[in-house]
Amino acid sequence: MATSTTLDTVWEKVFERYKETWLWYEQWVSKNPTTVAQVENTFRMLSYMIAGRFEDSQVMSELIFAASNLLVLFHDNIFRKSLEIFKSNIDLSQAKLMQWVTVISYIEVFIELAASRIGGEFTRWTMILLVQIFKSILRLILLFKYKSGIQKPIAVSPVRREDIKVASETDDTHEDTDLSTRLSSSLSKGDLEKSQLEEHPTEKVFKGKRYGRTVRTLKSAPPLNQRTWKLPNDNIEISKLKVSSESTVLGKRRIIGESIHIIRPLIHLSSTFCFGMNSWTPWLMSLGLDLSSLHFIGETDDLNTEEKSEVRRRTTMLLLYLLRSPFFDKYSKIKILQSLKGFSKRFPASSLILNPLMEYLPIWQKIYFYNWAV
């Protein structure tokens, strides 16, 4: 009995310590967006640096790259929780589905490479099929149940660390203003006269009357090591940072077009299993489905900014069919490599970039989630 009580006490202390550490970490992340961004970028750069260094470097590189993206997603959740300006009105269950789609999109390349390394081609294609089935189901639920509109490959967009810095500085300014207002309300009349300057927020910029030039005031200047040529952000700019989560309500034609886009990978994989990797049938079917999807979506004038950008991205991604087998193997591979080789000989300085690119292009082309993923 005494032993059980002692273990319960130990677990309570461990849990309390964990909660304290977690709260400290959340506060540290929310107050240091610049440092957090540097840590995230360091992980990402590390994934580039180890590529090609040893036998399993490609798998390890993708693991680190996926981990860096997951770390960004993890920190984004902390920022959205701590800063009201980044919160959205998306339903909780919908947000969870979007998080799952994002996580899968971040780790799918690593899953493919790891499966190929562990179990060979059969395991690789099995995992590719399972990932695409799971992701398609989630996207169809988002489309039909939650009316998510035109969906991006990364369902949850990363929060720009520059915006976080601006938002946190604005929150601090508002807190200081509120504090000075509360303090001034408790002062005597004599003290109130001395603190009149504290009752009014300090203007950050000054506009000249003669030439109309806008400059930063001396009081709003940051420390010397943090000064830039940019003007301080005002409330109008801050309002642009708020999350706009209202998706466009799609009509029947656009729902058909978006559904085709979502299920296209499954149809392509099915036709590949039926007709083989070197057959033109999967390539032509996939191209036809992508063109049909864009046709049904139609004009983008009434879509929001993110949806317009996504439709433009899908249109541009049609160029990837030049790099997809069998077209790449039979037509474009030789021409692309010869063009890059000729360019590197004509401009020797460019060989530092083009030679590694020529070596990596055939490897990249064989990775399914790089070349064929939605």
Attribute tags:
single chain, 374 residues, mainly alpha, two-stranded antiparallel sheet, 2 strands, 2% strand, globular
Low-confidence stretches: 179-202, 234-244
Q: What is the terminal separation in angstroms?
A: 58 Å
The structure class reads mainly alpha
Helix content: 55-70%
User: What's the total number of strands?
Assistant: 2
**Element string (H = helix, E = strand):** HHHHHHHEEHHHHHHH
- Total number of helices: 14
Strand content: under 5%
**Mean pLDDT reading:** 82
Q: Going across the biggest sheet, name each strand in turn.
A: 1-2
Radius of gyration: 27 Å
Note the overall shape.
Answer: globular
Main pleated sheet: 2 strands, antiparallel
Please describe what this structure looks like:
The protein has 14 helices and two strands. The protein is mainly alpha-helical and 374 residues long. About 9% of the residues have low confidence.
List the helices and strands and how they pair.
Layout (H helix, E strand, L loop, with lengths): L1 H30 L1 H17 L7 H26 L9 H53 L16 H25 L3 H6 L1 H4 L5 E3 L6 E3 L18 H5 L12 H24 L4 H18 L7 H12 L10 H20 L4 H16 L1 H4 L3
Antiparallel strand pairs: 1-2
Helix pairs in contact: 1-3, 2-3, 3-4, 4-9, 9-10, 12-13
In short:
With 374 residues, this protein is mainly α. 70% of the residues lie in helices and 2% in strands. The chain has helices spanning 2-31, 33-49, 57-82, 92-144, 161-185, 189-194, 196-199, 235-239, 252-275, 280-297, 305-316, 327-346, 351-366, 368-371, and strands spanning 205-207, 214-216.
